[in-house]
Known about the structure:
B: mainly alpha, Cytochrome Bc1 Complex, Chain D, domain 2, two-stranded antiparallel ribbon, 17 helices, 8 strands, 40% helix
Amino acid sequence: MARKLPRKDVAIVGLGWTGSILANELTDEGLDVVAIERGPWRDAPTDFPTTFDQDELRYRIRHDLFLRPEQLTFTFRNKMSEQALPIRDWGAFMPMTGVGGGGVHWNAETFRFLPTDFVLKTHLTQRYGARFLPDDMTIQDFGVTYDDLEPHYDQFEYLCGTSGAAGNLKGQILEGGNPFEGPRSRPYPNPPQAQPFSHTLFSKAARELGYKPFPQPSGNMSQAYMNPLGARLGPCTYCGFCEWFGCGNYSKAAPQTTILPTLVRKSNFSYRAECEVTRINVDRSGKRATGVTYVDASGEEWEQPADLVILAAFTIFNVQLLMMSGIGKPYDPVANEGVIGRNFTHQTISDAIGFFDKDKFNFNPFIASGSIGMCIDEFNGDNFDHGPLGFVGGGYMGQVQTGGRPIENTHVPPGTPKWGAKWKSAVRDNYLSTVTPGTGVHGSFYSYRDVYLDRDPLYQDRFGRALMRMTIDFHENEIKQNAYLTDKFAEIIKAMGAKEVEKQPRKAPYDVTKYQTTHLCGGAIMGTDPTTSALNRYLQSWDVSNLFVMGASAFPQNAGYNPTGTVAALAYWSAQAIRTQYLKNPGPLVHA
Amino acid sequence: MREPRMRRSGGAALAAAIFASSLVASSRAQDKVGTSLDPENFDQIERGRYLAIAGDCTSCHTVPGSGQPFAGGRPIETPFGAVVGANITPDSETGIGAWSDETFVQALREGKGHDGELLYPAMPYVYYTKLTEPDALAIRAYLNTVKPVRNAVVSDTLPFPLDIRQGMAAWNALYFASGEFKPDPAKSTEWNRGAYLVEGLGHCGACHTPKSALGGDDPAHAFEGYALQGWFAPNITNDNERGLGGWSVADIAAYLKNGHNPTTASTGIMAEEITLSSSHMSDADLTAIATYLKALPGQTAAPAAAIPASDPEMVAGEAIYADECSACHGSDGKGVAYLFPSLAGSSNVRSADPTSLIRIVIEGARSVATAGEPTGPGMPSFAWKLSDDQAAAVLTYIRNAWGATSPAVGASQVSQGRKRASTASGR
Amino acid sequence: MRLHRRELLGGAAFLFIGAAAGARAQWLPWRPEAGSPPAPFVQGPWIFFEAAEGAAVEAIVDRLIPPDPETPGGKDAGCAIFIDRQLAGPFGRRAGLYLSPPFIKGTKQQGPQDEDGPAQQYRKALAALDQYCKTSKGGVFASLGDADKDAVLSSLENGDAKLDGVDGSAFFELLVKNAQEGFFADPIYGGNRDMCAWRMIGFPGARYDYRDWVHRHNERYPRPPVSLEGRADWNARKT
């Protein structure tokens, strides 16, 4: 039986990026806020210090910082006709746990979506006609525009000290930046990072092929920085232990380095770590949340009453809590009705590995940071004419090599045996002269009727709740998109001077054992129509007006960019709506 | 929580005029029980609150986390054993509610307790003697407003023969020069204010002045550094090599206010001082303190002999430094402003006594987080990673790199520091 | 919160303001010597493997990664020791993974659904492998000549070798993966002895600062590798 705690103004589920942003915004408004986080406190000098952070086996191979599947996992199948089986060990994505969430271990690639990404359905229909889109593609407009979000992108970039080169400053296209990006109101807060050798070669080759390469916008500091909250970050030291690792020297933007130092000082903020929220409680009308129930580390159950609930957990966990709490109509793919679980997406990535002459090229691949990259955007979104190509969507591509950690980055040319003397000498001869971009091609993943989340009928978690079931496969559109992009990408790698390029395009079926970013999106999407979305344009639940749901779960489809920048911009946008509209007049902000 | 702006009062004369009536009242009321101060005198109480913060009374008289300010009970480690801070809330039985104002002032400035017993100098009366009577009364006025807490503190905790308080008379004869602060007319108002705070209420010498075997200040070496509670409180004179010679007045004031300045970060006991005391003081007072410290002459001791870079300890130390330290402290030793202390040019690094350095390497460290500098960056622990020899080598290296010359650090010193660390955390 | 007397004496452990706004943490939590560094490697006998299993795995890793004049093979690099320690630890018993039944074999892209974890898989497969070698080659794996060993491994790889009750090619994949992990992981885990694999490829190891090198394009990085346990140069040369 849950014991009831004293009431708070706001209960926030999850203390990652969006939880921290909302907590800071709402405490600034004078509200009494409690954040409840499933995982432990995490901080640089104790949890990922420079003394043992450089451990590929522990952090990348054995997933030490991440959520244990034993604590919570999902089941997976490609098609509705199959039986879903549990993801017993992570592969395709890595859900994080702990204070800071994904902001601790991310690479810190900080992109904005294109203006057309927000009005995708309208735009593609206008340009290519409705029949150009596959019948079962369920893309939608977001309900907000790039212009709505621009000040909030800016806010996040200045919070983080994002290092970059502006490409479009108030409409003026600037050399050296991304000419396709939406207009930004001011330059990045920090200049771009220094690029290692292979990245500069990519940039040169891309330019010679007529593209406009630009440095990837990076949440790794190019120099020491103080953010608007007074937090201090140090210069990135190119250690090459970025994604999957916490940053030991305060040079990666994370909640710990940007928001939490200020947040924990506030007397109207408190937190509970190692407490797992199991339910959002609603009153008998089903239209009002009364708080949340959670289980602490010793298994005790508590009820935290609150006037406002912010759901700020990872994508699938947001959807799971909505479903478990009976909020919103669960999506039925057969009837094509319901909203909770629909429009679930991931990312379509691929690679092309370049093998170079070891006597002429030494790339020192271990000198790297998480968002080191020279990228081109010519093949992202609708930046190119899809008419002759027979697919929609695209992505950025670049030499984005984030490290040379040897367990995963000792590639050998195609045809080399996978073991034995020849393997060994090929490893020796190729390590320093191989270009392994990682997410070389970072493509969009649009939404489909039969790619969705629901509850598994068989497997359960430690509380006896049904695991969430992912039904997900690649559709022909994304496979075609990726094949086209991978070819373009491989051309550039070849033009860098590679003697051999191994293309690794993404192939169906979707494989849950192969890592392909943790950019899971959708399932509790935002929109303008309550029959096809769970949230309105302010991320407010259509059903429960004192519930707001943050995160990439709000994306109706995923664009060809890393989602965090947009996730954070939406969080700030929603916080602004709560502060300036909702609190003055609690209730639905949009009447559909 | 925001501090109200504190305006420094106009000087001793003005203060005397304002509080003349209460002075007269207390001198006529020697036998009176309890306070005679006006509980409605907001100015006096606010002044007292600020002075209590400047004197960091809470540090010894409040158990952290107890939610009971000034209720006493906190053990204070001294070289002779632990003494326990008294209950100075206005509770009439277990606190000081029944004391007369004069008795209170006498405790602060003369080291005499309620029944005439001698206080141990862990209560820093040897410094508080410099307080003016109005200031002492203001502190009393503030303490009168604190919530009374019933908490009978056992004060006699030292072992025989130190528990015989009368013995303190002999100690006082050696080490206690009673008397209010006398401003020096040849110096600026700011210097005088700084002197008043540093030599008096701030009791900086309690930690920073070396002491004799009996625990009394060595006045010939005032503020040249002292080892206590497992740390070395550094030299805070204006000495170029080992003191604050490399810092400006603004650097010192910023350090006291925010715990950080471009070249260093505060940790350890001073971090607590900053949190509870100096971060709440006015910019003018902090500048005054800095002005006074910068005027304290440096020592002319010749630096230690340079250890050549080719020395095997230095070679090993350089290798460790490049592999383990430069990611934060830089290959040039300069760190990152406001984030990672500069080791190059650091008088702390060049301290004669390396106790603090050893402790930080073994335990790691959390620097102070303040409103002005909220990050509070931390350094990891190297206890598991470096042997005693290796820790000694890298410390020797940083003490002799980038133009510095300091005595080497030996493996046995590291070993002692390690033992102390494991004892302190109860392992 | 209980505060031990000695913690109070030590200074800034986890501080609260007593006098001002009530008990309140001012900064992120920290304790002296906090953190969970990896346990240092301890040389010694097999912890998981029986003698015959250890001999078999040593022989296997020495063919997966053969010795050459410049760089030790899998055996001398400690890959078998690495695997032994891994199987004896959380990896072997699948700590933290989702192990609820039922275990139903699915598609390849649904990932492993075995009831057995690595520890059991090695145990069963090594026994089956030696049995197979005795039957087809006249002796256990470790007793065979190099050419025969390689032939057995190849037929495991391509599925020709049928091991009793064991998926031979899946086991072979696991072997290659674990052997290479051991070869390239930090020596603190038992393999990559003296950082021999890192020296082979030119990986500088557990470093954290390349600021002075990011601009130096196409130049060999000069510093030797360092592991989480340090390197020989950290010890002062005694004269």
